[in-house]
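Exam revision sheet. Question 4 asks you to relate a sequence to its structure. Input first:
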Amino acid sequence: MPPTVLHLTSILRGPLLDPKGERLGRVEDLIVRLADESYPPVTGLKARIGGRELFVAIDRIAELSAGAVRLSEEKLSVRRFERREGEVLLAQDVLDRSLVNIGSEPPRLVRAREIELACIDGWWRLVGVDESFRARLRRALPRRVRHLLGTRPFLDWSDMDPFVGHVPTMRLRFYHRKLANLHPAEIADLVEAASHEEGEEIIEALGRDRELEADVFEELDVAHQLELIRERSDEEVAGMLARMAPDDAVDLIEEMDQERRVRVLALLPATKQRRLKALLGYNPSTAGGLMSPELVLLDERISAGEALERVRKSETSPESSVVVLLHDEHGRLSGSIDLVRVLRAPQGVALAELVSREPVSVGTDADVTQVARTMTDYDLILLPVVDEEGRAVGVVSVDDVLELTLPAGWRRRFGVARD
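Answer key, structure tokens:
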């Protein structure tokens, strides 16, 4: 038999009774500790008795019901209620606030219009939230007729990730572990749909994983990127840019005002600084402005086995390593090979012998249309970009081209939404 579910609002402001059923005061809020458990236990309640707010531990409660809360003993501590580390007040901190529903596809923001509790193995626990209009309507009705609306399925708490940045006792203790398991693009959608404070909380929580934080930043639209870096120091922004892909980092730098751009660039590591300054010299709407300088460029005369070893040691991102570019003895682009083909080739064969056609590339001044047409004609996921001397200086990826050719606001059409 499934456990009985109680609505939080059916308990709030209800009477607090002594063991004999005499009224002592009223229930103001319920308290939980949001730890690693899927269904956090209720640890007590905040009650108002004689004008004082007191804490009542859960082991002092004999009955928790929609009508009233009855104590198991008459003695209560008369100390005023004070938050303890890690405590969350369900009505004050969670009810009517946003949460992230990790269990939906895609993940989305929901509003906790009602909070659901159930007694599991003798312990009252937080088990879900109701985001429906019915929950809002039920709260507006007199208590005596609320039951007429019945109940409906609610969202499982184990799929929820609440915002608790506003809770002083939780700010440094809650890490949004569930969010960290999402794809960076999904997290970015959530940040864009959230309020400024909620978005800051998400990014701050991800800061424990600097690489993930940078990946999410790459997926954000420019307006949100600028909003989030506005309150960060130049050192913090430089650290973020250093971890971002060069082409994405340049897109953000170009949106900064000139004074801050100069300061931030000066704080970057020398190698990264040179790369970004080189990219900033190209028109953003050309192949030079689109490209990433991250590439695997090898001498065509080396063997497949040596090539694989160099790829393993390379710090180039996996996305930019799926295609190996070749250069001749003069440093000019001489071909490109899928990494899979290199893996399948005899270890001793020279890379030049694996190339079956002239290299496909575009110059740094090629426009977006030419880039897209070339990639489509040759079915490429990475297109080499060469300088005037035919030397490879970067690659354009298919996702960069798609992002430019899709209509404005394309992600919002398929991403999360706030109710």
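Marking note for examiners. The chain has 16 helices and 20 strands.
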